Prior knowledge:
The complex is a heterodimer. Chain A is an all-alpha fold. Chain A is 74% helix and 0% strand. The longest helix of chain A is centred in the first third of the chain and has 34 residues, at 70-103. Chain B has helices spanning 41-48, 71-75, 93-98, 113-125, 141-154, 171-184, 195-201, 219-222, 225-232, 256-260, 262-288, and strands at 3-12, 15-25, 30-34, 56-61, 64-65, 78-81, 159-163, 187-191, 204-209, 212-217, 235-240, 247-252. Chain A binds chain B through residues 1-2, 4-6, 9, 101, 105-107, 165-167, 169-170, 236-237, 239-240, 242-243, 245-250, 252-257, 295, 299-301, 355-357, 359-361, and chain B through 13, 46, 49-51, 70-76, 78-80, 82, 84-92, 95, 99-100, 102-103, 105, 107-108, 113, 116-117, 120-121, 124, 132, 137, 155, 288-290. Chain B: Keywords: ATP-binding, Nucleotide-binding. Chain B: Pfam families: ABC_tran.
Amino acid sequence: MPPTHFDSILKKRSVFTMIILILSAAVVCSVILAVSIGQVSIPFMESYRILVYQLTGIPIGDIGELASGSQVDIIWHIRLPRVLLAMIAGSGLALCGTVMQASVQNPLADPYILGISSGASLGATFSIMIGFGAAGIIGGMGIAFWAFIGALGAAALVLVLASIGGKTSSVKLVLAGTVINALCSAFSNFIVYFAKDAEGIRSVTFWTMGSLASAKWDKLPLIAIVMLIAVLFLLFQSRIMNTMLMGDETAVTLGVNLHFYRRLYMIISSMITGVIVATCGIIGFVGLIVPHLVRSVVGSDHKRLLPVAVLASAIFLIWTDVLARTVIPNGELPIGIVTALFGAPMFMYMLMKKSYGFGGK
Amino acid sequence: MRLEVEHLYVTLAGTDIVKDISLQVDNGQFVGIIGPNGCGKSTLLKSIYKVIKPKQGSVFLEERDVLKSNPKSISKKMGVVGQFNDLSFDFTVHEMVMMGRTPHKHAMESDNKEDYEIVHTALEKVDLLSYADRSYLTLSGGEKQRVILARAIAQQPKFLILDEPTNHLDIKYQLQILSIVKALKVGTLAALHDLSLAATYCDILYVVKDGKVVASGIPNEVLTKELIKRVYEIDCEIYANPVTGGMAIAYIPTDTAVRQSNERSKRSTFQHREGCKNSKKEERSVGETT
């Protein structure tokens, strides 16, 4: 056997492991830091003490302030669930974006652009305004369920629309996504326009712009479990996603039936998007920009791309949310606005950059 | 491995493209398919490597029924080098070649030392070892094609299918690619458009026109003036190349005025080429709409 570069490959692998460890540490640090930042200024040491006490029961300093009080409420019941939701939603959006970009072989794909977010939003709007969403936890699940149905319906429509008149091409998929996006938004607006329920209108408006303000402990388990399962499953799919990027024909010659996997991945992405939209509304562009930024650093190999994108996006959304809730005194911006402010210029840059094309070919 | 195609019919968008083609490739044989643009060469190959579903007929790789097997089991035995290999996403050369290991891997299995050695050998065979860390999209056409060939080699195929692998390549790379393939000594079925190259490298030639095999056999016997006139509608003269001793073909333009004027002859070849390109595009769009 000829001498191989196996040693240098092993070295590369250990560098990659280091990146993962550093990013994981950065996620934890971001959570702790983000919890101590907000409209009400609470010293970092104070919030750190509250966190440690609530998590482990070890009191640092005076125990009286740690168990109850307004600071505890803010840190433990408002900020921490919100920061954790940002972390989970962020990683979910990047995961969806990466998987969708592979599934449709187009660098411009993400849940928002392919109309799946709008589909989910339509489902949620429908359930709120027509009244399928009952109160309490079951109500929350109900909205998530309808959001999932909306997301899945939109994904199915996009796939069907793009396959009319012969072979599905990535350009057709993006165009179909744009159409479905417009259609679902129009229907949502229609429902809202004719609704007389002021409370309902407010919560629908919230859906279309995205916000993490509704984060509560009882909402976290569902989204966390869905995300955990999806991440664990998809991390092991990197080999298939790599062959997906080679195009349909090559994938077949490498033994992968893209037809099946494309559908499977769209269903999983719809599920994640549905759950995220049901809890935080539409947060655009995260699924688009983060995979691209990460790809420019670690390359297109999904074995490295997926975990790094998931971690980086968690960090990204935690800090975008910090910005959203602190940039205006005594108020907050919908997070969708902040991510769009970052995302739109990035999108423009990609369109202008020659090497991306519109799905190659 | 031996490939046996019997009575294959392929219909695309209501049009019969391949009409009753049968062919055999024996173990270690290099078999070429030639024919004018749009004659059904690519469609035939695509239905053999399972991208297009044929209407009728059978394809056997040794004892294995290719059309009824799943893609994974076929891809362990059969490697394919296609025509167009543009990507929307960039990979390094090493990553591209490593994808050739996909058929041999479970979803959860990571690349082991053996895989790296196979990739290393494959890169060595196409002389791209020093390119391992280069990005695929920055390579030239010839280099890209060699990467794709290396990926097929990394599949460790017992059979190779090449669909006009030398299209758009400089003559140096055309020879290089075919020589590498020939040196692999596995059964090979290749669609080629250059008749002299086909005559040089192929053991057996099948000539296809309008979806049918019109002639087959060893290149020296198949490629005659009359056949080329019949299939390609062009006059030519065939002679023994004084340098290599191999077969050489001189094409004679149909327009007599062209022969008289060098200047106009150039223009005519150019236009002829343009014509080829256009019909090539049509052939592609037919393939893509199904």
